[in-house]
Amino acid sequence: MRGELKRFENLDTLSEAAAADVSSLISETVGRKGTCSVALSGGNTPRTLHHLLATRYRDEVPWDSVSIFFGDERYVPHSDANSNFLMAKQTLLDLVPIPQGNIHPIPTELSGTDKAAAAYERVLRDFFQDVGETFDLLLLGMGKEGHTASLFPHSKALDECRKWVTPVDVPATPPRRITLTYPILNRSASIYFLITGSDKRPALHEVAEMGTDYHVIPARGIEPVKGRLVFWVDSSAFPV
Q: Domain range holding 137?
């Protein structure tokens, strides 16, 4: 299997180990570079990780040097219960001393997903430029059908090779979304997948075997150019 595969008994033990690692990675990166850029994922799996970062590791992370981005977003207001930004705000960002100017949500308040995607692309390109690594840490999840961020099976976005951000319509609720694409995701320095639940096991098995095309299992398309790839997996999702 490409990357590292870490197995844990359940979500709690997985999150505890991941939180310790994330805290250490951020601190080491800030010590080395002066800053650390982190892209957050949506879904329910990161909630426990967020809680630990906001409590146990709150005073160990140099939050004033951390910049926060998002791997994808539902095209809903930031106050909507479906918003990835709202989840991160409530479970992490409001609970740690991070400057508001360091938080970069996808601008769903703009009229139309095309405009929102183009605006976020400008933010990312201004921040990272066009060469070298992008995120110091990219956190991702995976759906039972193998989607990651909002890259779903057979989506046209899977073959996007120029744009870093694109609007998508997906077979999920809500369907209108904005997602980052492989060209920026795969330039991350460290990519951590957090995967739990027995319904994820078949897709993760395909990712582990490396035999399925990324058009069928989009998580398979996450292949860092030079970075580190780690799968943090609970026992129910662990491939056999």
A: 4-234
| Cβ-contact 222, 229 below 8 angstroms | yes
Sign of CA dihedral 77, 82, 85, 87: positive
Q: Is residue 240 part of a domain?
A: no
Torsion of CA 40, 75, 82, 203, to 10 degrees: -60
Is 239 domain-assigned?
no
Residue 56 confidence class, pLDDT cut points 50, 70, 90: very high
206 in Cβ contact with 146 (< 8 Å)? yes
Q: How many domains is the chain partitioned into structurally? A: 1
Q: Is position 215 within any domain?
A: yes
* pLDDT digits 0-9 by tens, 88-147: 999 999 999 999 999 999 999 999 999 999 999 999 999 998 878 999 999 999 999 999
Q: 210: left (phi > 0), else alpha (psi -120 to 50), else beta?
A: left
Q: Are 152 and 168 in contact (CB under 8 A)?
A: yes
CATH of the domain at 104: 3.40.50.1360
Task: Judge whether 180 lies within some domain.
Answer: yes
117 vs 107: CA distance, rounded Å:
8
Are 57 and 97 a contacting pair, CB within 8 Å?
no
